[in-house]
Amino acid sequence: MDGPADSTAAAVTTQLVLTNDSDLDIEYRVESVKVTIQHRLAEKADFATAPTLVAPGTASIVRCPPIRAVDRTGPSSGSVDYVIVYGHPDAPPALRYRRQHGVWFRFEATSDDSVRVRFVERYDEDDPARAS
Question: For the whole model, what pTM was predicted?
Answer without folding.
Answer: 0.72
